[in-house]
Amino acid sequence: MRILAIDPGYDRLGMAVVEGDASRPTLIWSDCVMPGKGAREERLSCVSRAVLSAIKKYAPDILAIETLFFNKNIKTAVGVAEARGAILVAAGNTSLSVVEYSPQQIKSAVTGYGGADKTAVARMLPLLLSLPEKKRLDDELDAIAIGITALSIGSSRH
């Protein structure tokens, strides 16, 4: 199974393509898209184009995305919600099925503990799959973790 995994964001969009199964995940590609500081509609268009481009290039079986969680910063939550909307529209326009996972599900799938912090998740990733040397932002690492989660949890659903 091939997964396009996305850590949704308004300022930074983590994206990864993983395939295989839970016991042997393979990273095909990952990146962090930064839409720039333009108008909201331009930034959301950039998010949508990036997702459509990845769908076209990598032909995933499903799109996996982190569920929206609310923090104290309402402005950030609204931006992430809008980015999620742009991502879901891109998936819908290509008839790509979407699965969603909570932060706790992702942490549990990657580390075995739903209360793990971001550092623990980042430390586990190179133990679970081969990560070519490159500087990665948290958003990109989160997308890889979402992909691993989809392979782990999704294998029982698909």
UniProtKB/TrEMBL annotation:
Q: Has keyword S-adenosyl-L-methionine?
A: no
What is this protein identified as?
A: Crossover junction endodeoxyribonuclease RuvC
| Names of required cofactors | Mg(2+)
- What compartments host this protein? Cytoplasm
Q: Name one GO cellular component term.
A: cytoplasm
Where along this sequence does the record place binding of Mg(2+) 2? E66
Q: Which keywords annotate this record?
A: Cytoplasm, DNA damage, DNA recombination, DNA repair, DNA-binding, Endonuclease, Hydrolase, Magnesium, Metal-binding, Nuclease
Which residues are catalytic? D7, E66, D139
Provide the assembly information: Homodimer which binds Holliday junction (HJ) DNA. The HJ becomes 2-fold symmetrical on binding to RuvC with unstacked arms; it has a different conformation from HJ DNA in complex with RuvA. In the full resolvosome a probable DNA-RuvA(4)-RuvB(12)-RuvC(2) complex forms which resolves the HJ.
Stated family = Belongs to the RuvC family.
Q: How is the cofactor bound?
A: Binds 2 Mg(2+) ion per subunit.
UniProt-listed Enzyme Commission number(s): 3.1.21.10
Main location class: cytoplasm
Tell me one GO biological process term. Answer: DNA repair
Residue intervals passing through the bilayer: none
Q: Does the keyword Magnesium apply?
A: yes
Entry function? The RuvA-RuvB-RuvC complex processes Holliday junction (HJ) DNA during genetic recombination and DNA repair. Endonuclease that resolves HJ intermediates. Cleaves cruciform DNA by making single-stranded nicks across the HJ at symmetrical positions within the homologous arms, yielding a 5'-phosphate and a 3'-hydroxyl group; requires a central core of homology in the junction. The consensus cleavage sequence is 5'-(A/T)TT(C/G)-3'. Cleavage occurs on the 3'-side of the TT dinucleotide at the point of strand exchange.
